[in-house]
Amino acid sequence: xxxxxxxxxxxxxxxxxxxxxxxxxxxxxxxxxxxxxxxxxxxxxxxxxxxxxxxxxxxxxxxxxxxxxxxxxxxxxxxxxxxxxxxxxxxxxxxxxxxxxxxxxxxxxxxxxxxxxxxxxxxxxxxxxxxxxxxxxxxxxxxxxxxxxxxxxxxxxxxxxxxxxxxxxxxxxxxxxxxxxxxxxxxxxxxxxxxxxxxxxxxxxxxxxxxxxxxxxxxxxxxxxxxxxxxxxxxxxxxxxxxxxxxxxxxxxxxxxxxxxxxxxxxxxxxxxxxxxxxxxxxxxxxxxxxxxxxxxxxxxxxxxxxxxxxxxxxxxxxxxxx
Amino acid sequence: xxxxxxxxxxxxxxxxxxxxxxxxxxxxxxxxxxxxxxxxxxxxxxxxxxxxxxxxxxxxxxxxxxxxxxxxxxxxxxxxxxxxxxxxxxxxxxxxxxxxxxxxxxxxxxxxxxxxxxxxxxxxxxxxxxxxxxxxxxxxxxxxxxxxxxxxxxxxxxxxxxxxxxxxxxxxxxxxxxxxxxxxxxxxxxxxxxxxxxxxxxxxxxxxxxxxxxxxxxxxxxxxxxxxxxxxxxxxxxxxxxxxxxxxxxxxxxxxxxxxxxxxxxxxxxxxxxxxxxxxxxxxxxxxxxxxxxxxxxxxxxxxxxxxxxxxxxxxxxx
Lengths: 323, 319
Hints:
The complex is a heterodimer.
Chain A: H1 3-24, E1 36-42, H2 50-59, E2 69-74, H3 89-101, E3 106-111, H4 119-126, H5 128-135, E4 138-141, E5 147-151, E6 161-165, H6 166-170, E7 173-177, E8 179-183, E9 187-189, H7 201-204, H8 209-214, H9 216-226, E10 231-241, E11 249-259, H10 262-272, H11 281-289, E12 298-300
Parallel strand pairs in A: 1-12, 2-3, 2-7, 3-4, 7-10, 8-10
Antiparallel strand pairs in A: 1-11, 5-6, 8-9, 10-11
Chain B: H1 3-24, H2 42-54, H3 64-67, H4 87-99, H5 108-116, H6 124-133, H7 156-171, H8 177-193, E1 207-208, E2 211-212, H9 217-226, H10 234-244, H11 252-263, H12 272-286, H13 296-305
Antiparallel strand pairs in B: 1-2
Helix pairs in contact in B: 1-12, 1-13, 2-4, 2-13, 4-7, 5-7, 7-8, 7-9, 9-10, 9-11, 11-12, 11-13
């Protein structure tokens, strides 16, 4: 074990210990279910078959969506030609249609990009605007939604509350739809990191800099404890490796990951990326109280995980994440 | 009817519809405007007041929607909560009050608070960290402007708006001479330092992990508005050229900022007027039905951008 791996393991271990201590003192509520369900689904491209794939995949979970308002939260950062930065619009559109088909009363798509203030520009340039218009799905700019002051249930950042968009808080079923990517500050950006996009720019600016200063890992934990995603549909058809989340290289993974637990989803995605989730600090801590990371508590409904994976390229700072 | 007249008429009608929509969205009791829904927002309120002012529409409540939300320290929040200070919202409010002819005493404390505020990199410890330890983002922390919110670092949009507001306030006799000048100089240097290598501005970082970031239309426009007196600098001219290439931008918010910024350069750059004409045609089409645009700020910004005979550009730095 080299010094960097040892350091990362030590940080992750310390974080997990801190979470365990908070659990034992009652300051942290254990929200883990006895078992989490994950479906890894083979899908080579963003083809017309996506609608069917999504509908079939969701049926595996027997979700009760009747009369519910579903909010899809894709990962939109900005449009960079030739880069697989954003959750693919066709996947978002297919998910919206699938949830309506399965009985949802309403499906909304909402996002609050971190750097680009003009959300509607990102929507237009990525093609999501056209996709949603054709499917008659409404979009909400979470950066400029009405906001509500929400007391935090955890204090990893030391903040007492977060301003959060009303649309997110009143939705019955929040679906995090990340792009499977590496991230130059957080190591990986998956369904939990994706929820940074629910924090409104009108309250925190562009980027959401107060959360960076409080620590990205800690912020991810506080946000996910405040706004738990009920479901995950991760876009791993083409992911990004290397210098993500903007300037990495496309990486064909050929998978969609669905899960009823964001922690289980992110552990699975990290493994598909050939990375060790137990070395991602925020994932280790989240697995102590927010969701399941332990393999014995994750039921796979779709494909099983491949035995060997060529690891995603990562920046040298994150070399210790590779399996 | 020739084509250019038809375009002008389309733009005039679009502007009328925008102004009607702004009036329709007033919060109950003259409480200002929200981004969407019924929650006050300092940005949409400031921009809506400017849009109505440019059409000489005077509301009974005049500047009251903004003044009612000013914190005791003179600062504004964008979400209406006095504890959540926002320097972008404050700079917008100061600029708006100044243009609306408010008594300078109503925003003198706000000007002082803007001058006094410091971003994180103004601290010597943080500055050292960025200069010698954390070099993933290439910038000079000794050149700082304004953050969005306290206890964070400088970013382009709040810095540009603070420079515009403070320059205007200076001409109203507000602000302490030496310190005001120093903050104006530092803020200007910060914008120049953070420009993308080929021109234009991203949110505030130009190069991260050795990779140049792409400029954004709105932040580039804002920085160009603030840097108009420095047109002689190559980085300003390059940034203007980059901006003018975005006259076909598909979003009304960015396009409106682009028009307002290009407008202040039309006396020094011959290609500006045709680009503005083209952008206005595009903007008029994008805002054809303002009821479908959720964000009131976009509507309020598009109205002055479509003003064919402006009394003055609300974001032009007075020289």
